[in-house]
Amino acid sequence: MCEIFALNSKTKYAPDKYLRAFFSHSDEHHSGWGIALIEDGNINIEKEPVKASDSKYLKERLNNLKDCKDMLAHIRLATVGYMEYKNTHPFTVNDISGRKWVQIHNGTMFEASFLSDYSNCQDGTTDSEQMLYYYKDCLDSQISKKGGELSFEERFKIIDDAVCILSDGCKLNMMLHDGEYLYVHRNYKDSLYFLEDGDAVIISTSPLSSEDEWLQVPGNMLLAYKDGKCVKRGTNHGHSFEFTEEQLKYIYTAIAML
Q1: What is the largest CA-CA distance in the chain?
Q2: Portion of the chain with pLDDT greater than 90, in percent
């Protein structure tokens, strides 16, 4: 599948060491790479549908990467959707209040067939992008009812409710950012870890250094981070995911065909 990475910090932080370790995994996750830098509510995305270790642009970009507070990164092993720019994470969408959301995902939405309703509005063909449009629909509905922008508490409740639905029967390891807060969810064992370093937290599919302080991200609930700290936990939905034999066959076949 894929690997995901996030940095969330109170002060500017140098992610170079961990980010390079993360992208070194691209031999096994060779279907594309992407970075989202978030600063003062602005989200800048750079991505390519090529293996990270083969990208001359990424090499140069990492050499010139400045310290930052918020970042998402992704390396893709395609299972749904061909190896194209439009299928490369991160994905972004604006809700009707104008807030920009960015998402990365590691998983497959096996039991969420209703997401295919978004195939006509998405740019690519991935279920990950469809999931982001589902969040947008949920957010837009509440924004319309309220008649204005949502508070963080309101946004969190909407995403939490959506995650409780989407995680049932699906592998849903994802990171979502709204320009202010980082939202994190894991429901598959041994597949997302965090390291606290001063005012910063680094979150990754697997530990990126030999430091003993890497801990597993709590599972089966939505988490929100700001300034390097977990500031809110959502519903413990209990939807731990385990692959069935049929699902594993599907994954292996999909990878072989792409």
Answers
A1: 50
A2: 82
